[in-house]
Every structure is written in structure tokens, then in C-alpha cells.
Amino acid sequence: MAMLTYLAILFLVKVDAQTYYCFENGGNYTELSAYQMSLQSFLNFAPFNLGYRGFFNFSAGPPDPIAGIALCRADLQLQDCEACVQNATDEIVKLCPFRRRAILWRENCTLRFSDVPIDGVLALTPLVVLPNPANVSIVQRFNASLTRLLDDLRRQAAASVLFMKVAVGNQTVANSVNIYSMVQCTPDISAGDCDRCLSNAFQQLPLNGSIGTTVLCPSCSLRATGAAFISSLSARSKTIIVVVVVAVAGLVIAGCAVLVFRRRKIKKQKRPFEIIKNDDDDDDDDDEIRTVESLQYELGKIRAATDDFSEANELGRGGFGVVYQGILENGKKIAVKRLSSSSDQGDLEFKNEVLVMAKLQHKNLLKILGFTIEGTERLLIYQFAENLSLDRFIFDPVKRSQLGWDQRYKIIEGIAQGLLYLHEDSRFRIIHRDLKPSNVLLDGEMNPQIADFGLARLFDGTETSTCRVVGTHGYMLPPEYAFRGHLSVKIDVYSFGVLILEIISGRKNSSFFDGDREEDMLSFAWRSWQEGTAESMIDPILREGSSGSSGDMLRCIHIGLLCVQENAADRPTMVSVVLMLNGSSNTIPTPPSRPAFFKQI
């Protein structure tokens, strides 16, 4: 009776061999919101990225973060694992509609998502106990055998080093009574947390001789029945063994390589950061290393320049750290990006940004002056943009008035030229993947400079895919990227289209209001275009002022709508965009088709 009361309090529901829980403390998301788009990405990716462990974890954001986990029972074959998770992705959104936190346990797999971090975090609730009404007569003997078996399996699972925290076993109690059991933790939690989770699960067992019980919680599960239920761990175990053997072989090879190239490593030991190339390019490699070494700054000089990273010199905070202003000994003003030591992606983004930006030279790209790697510090040093970022102007009710149409048009053109260079003319073809007003800086003459290449991706000219969807929702998530992970330069084109509409309207895509009604900006822009009232998109400051022609503004709205079309193939290239902005293209396709994520009202 106590257990039934507990489950009722948790609003737990069991339907047809599945148990689910819709958390109330997370609140709800809204239709077509950033959270819904990220959730859909997780649900799309999960069934096809489970791998040999039968486990997938996912995270996206900011601005509206989401984390997700999918886990299969360890004895499940991969195709059955994928099918189970696929069914769970369809079910969970129906069972917990618009919930920001939910968990679904199916017989063979678990699916969970949340708006707070869950990867590596021990979670003991909600907890479900599913007892079997069948009991044995030898209760004390049965309970003693069950306790010994589960205690042994608990230690085995927690101590597992083969990438899966799982243990299986059986125990004979009497001639006609056997216990078959499996315990399993999510692979992301520590050994200690796995032990704690399973210990907590054991304490929930009804030691009344029940011959079959299942205990489920977010971070672990246990099953103990009187009949064999485990299919086979052999296939998955073999795969894991192969992975371990390969890993060990790799370590051996790496050790040999260290011995062979010891002399070369000693020669280069003062180089804390190198660009690695093929062995055939030794001369070029040395040139690259010398170039990068010339960009390195001593940590002490940067500390002095920023007054030891004082709050008074803080310019802003981002997903990977804090940006400070500083003044070098020679009087030169700089901006310093200090990567967070707690960021899981800090080193990756740091190396990416240094390697890419050091080679990019364009007036509409922010210039990197150098970098620092010392201890745990990872610093990027840039030229200082006197007017900081674009968002501080176009979204500010006072500063927005400083940007007339001529100035805004100049900014739009400059951003387009910078993207064209990245996509077509630079040494590397690059997808920026995070184009937004806060990543466009303005120099003393209000010239735009694209910044923050931490998420940039090299591009070989063909469409590819990724399982890691990154960027800023509302800008970076056209449907082919959000739902299928397809990468192409058309992602940046989409972001540029949103940016044009924000610059012209002076309003954020994420918080757009039409009178008293909140509406998606892209939907409003397209509907207004269709109805012949596109002037309503224009910032009142521009409509009231005398600078610029409404024809040019409408032309830019048209181009913006072309850039955000639902089908990536229908979006123009940046070459076409630049031509249209310069008036060199006599014909612009009209009308634009419906934008991505159009919301009908």
C-alpha cells in the first residue's frame, strides 16, 4: 500500500509494458520553440547513434539547453536496440506532450530528456518497483540467495571497466527454484555512483519471496526473475573486447612512435601548440609552427593588460568563457577571450579558433592577434572592436537610433562579404555555424567584423552530416540541420537571412511581437510579404527618418526571406546574395517560398 501511494504521488503511469513519468517541475515548452527543435534533434539522432554500448547522450544549447540519454538493455542486439529506442521516441512526446523533462522505460530500453544537465549526474528518482505476484514458499532461503546474488552483481557492475556498467548472473535456490538477474547502470555515471544507485534499488525490493521483481530509476535498473530472460551478451561483449584490443594496440603503437620520434619531440618540446601535417610536408610544417609560435603571448603580459582579468574590464560572457578588454605595454587595445576551465569543449573550440582565424585575412572578419596556453589557461587575443557587438545597437531602444539605413545597409553588405570570403575565397572553405548579432563586432567606423569561430567547420564543398548539432537556436537551425544534421554553407545563408530581418526590424527573432500577440518573426515577415504589408517589418526609426529608400529596405527583406526558405536548395548562395545587395542582379526570384518553421495562425 505504501508503494502504491508513492507511485501515485509521482504521477507515474504504466501502460502496455512501458512506464513513464512526466516531470511537472520542469514546466512546458511551446510549439516551434528552440527547446522543441533541439528535442526533435535528440529524438531523431538517438535511434541511429547507439553504438556497441547501446547508449547515446545528447546536449544542445544555449540559449535553451537540453540534455538527453538513450540506453538499451545490455543483452539486446543492436537492431533490436535501435527499434526499441525508435518506438520510445515516438511514444514519449505523445505521453508527455510539451513537457521539458520526461523519462520513458520500455521493457528493453530507456529514453530520458531534461532542460538541466543529466550526463554523468546520478539520479535516483523517480523510482519504479514492478513486483511479480508469484511468491515462493521458502521465503527466507530465497531472500538470502537473492541478496547474495544481487550484492555480488552490484560490485561487478560498478567495477566494470569495459565501457558498460552491467553484470548478469543466476543462483539456484532449490531444485525447482532459480534466480536470474541483470543489473545495469548508465555508462556515464561513476563507479561510486553506480554502486550507490544499485544499493538504493536493492533497498526497494519487497523481500517477501516475490519470484520476479524489476526496479527502475533514471541511472540504473535491476531485474530478478525465476525464469531465464537474458538473450545473450556475447555479440555486444565481443564488440567491446575488439574495441579494447584496438585501444591497447593503439597505445602500443603510440608508445613505439614516442620512442622512434623522441629526438624530434625533444627538439620541439618548447612548442606548446603545433599544427600537425603529413610527414611529406616537413618544410611547410615548420613554417606553420613558426607562424603559430609568433602569435603566442606570455600569460603574465595578458594578466597585466587586463588588470588580472578584473570585473571592471569584462566585456561579455559567452558559452565558452568571458571576454575582457586590455591594454598592452605598447598602448595597443586588445580583447581577450578567456576560455572556461569547466567547459567540456573549451580546448576543442580554442584550437579550432586559433588554427582557422590565424589564416583568415578579410576586412569583415575579426583579426586574431595571438593566443596563450599556460597551465589551465586558454586565451585568445583579438584586435579590439571599439563599438563592441551589433546586438548592443540594434536591440537597444536608445542606441538603435544611431543606426540609420545607410549604416545598417553597410553592415548587411559587410557581413555578406565576410561570409562570401569564408564560403568561396578563403584558403579554407568554412561554415561559421553561429552567425548572430552578438558574433558580429563593430570597429570605430562601424564596419562589421564576423567573430567567434569556435564552432566553425571546414567544408569540402559537398553536403555532409553531423550528430552534434551546435549553434544558437533561432539562427542556426534550419530544418535540414536541426532534424537531420545535414551540413552545408546554406546553414550560414539561413542565419544571414534571420540577421537581415533583425537588422531591418530592430527586433530579436526570439522575442518578436505583433501588437499584443507574440509571433515568430519569420512567419510574420513572410505573411506580411504575401499580404503586401512588408513595410510593417521595418524599424519605426527607419520609417520615420529621411535616410534611405523604402525600396532598398523592401529589397533586403526580400533577400532575407529568400535566405530562410525551408528547402536549402531554394536558398541563394552568398555569391548571389552579394550580387542582389549590390543591385547587380536585375531579377530577384519572387515571391519567396514559405520560410522554415512557418507557424500558421
Automatic annotation (TrEMBL):
Q: Does the keyword Metal-binding apply?
A: no
Membrane topology of this protein = Single-pass membrane protein
Q: Where does ATP bind?
A: K337
A single GO molecular-function term is: ATP binding
Predominant subcellular localization, coarse grouping: membrane
| Pfam families per UniProt | Pkinase, Stress-antifung
Mind telling me which CDD domains this protein's record contains? Gnk2-like (cd23509), STKc_IRAK (cd14066)
Q: Which residues span the membrane? A: 240-261
Start and end residues of each Gnk2-homologous domain = 17-118, 124-229
Annotated Protein kinase domain ranges read 309-597
List the signal peptide residues: 1-17
What is one Gene Ontology biological process annotated in the Swiss-Prot or TrEMBL record?
response to abscisic acid
The UniProt keywords, alphabetically, are: ATP-binding, Glycoprotein, Kinase, Membrane, Nucleotide-binding, Phosphoprotein, Receptor, Repeat, Serine/threonine-protein kinase, Signal, Transferase, Transmembrane, Transmembrane helix
**Is this entry keyworded Nucleus?**
no
Under InterPro entries, the record lists: GNK2, GNK2_sf, Kinase-like_dom_sf, Prot_kinase_dom, Protein_kinase_ATP_BS, Ser/Thr_kinase_AS
* Annotated GO CC locations: plasma membrane
Q: What domain of life is recorded for the organism?
A: Eukaryota
Subcellular localization, per the record?
Membrane
The protein's name: Receptor-like protein kinase At4g00960
Organism expressing this protein natively: Genlisea aurea
